[in-house]
């Protein structure tokens, strides 16, 4: 089996107008991941804690505390013990996860595209972009089938099969075809193209 790798950086685009830059910022914000799942988990935990505390407070106000929270048991806890430290460390870790999830951007299912008007935001699904890249790679000379397309934040990796035993130079043609496809679609973030060709028997 003969394998080769090639890489091609997308050509630089010309100067963009202020309207196009505003359109890019609007698309980047509109298609940003909202972290719905982890936000829902945090909201459920906070809601549960609030309900428990409210039950305890309200029941104490009417003179019949339910003691949902075992305050007396907390007084007997060894706060310098390893169990307490482990629980505290776990809570701190969970808090840091939620904090980082709120601060760091997640991976959106939609890839924002360059636009010319801030009020018109365009995007393509990650699956749709991978399919377009695979179709462009399959149209390149010497490619029998595209096995996999990985779409990263800064890089596109294409793994394809070729019936040609000596495939030197073919990977550059595949990278060029993929680069032209990206230029037509115009994703907001430029990506480097990496190609690996494997020999296909028969």
TrEMBL record:
UniProt KW Phosphoprotein keyword: no
InterPro entries reported for this sequence: DUF6286
Comp. bias intervals (Basic and acidic residues): 18-27
Stretches for region Disordered: 1-27
Positions of transmembrane segments: 41-66, 86-104
Residue intervals of the DUF6286 domain: 93-197
Name of the protein this chain belongs to: DUF6286 domain-containing protein
Organism: Actinomadura verrucosospora
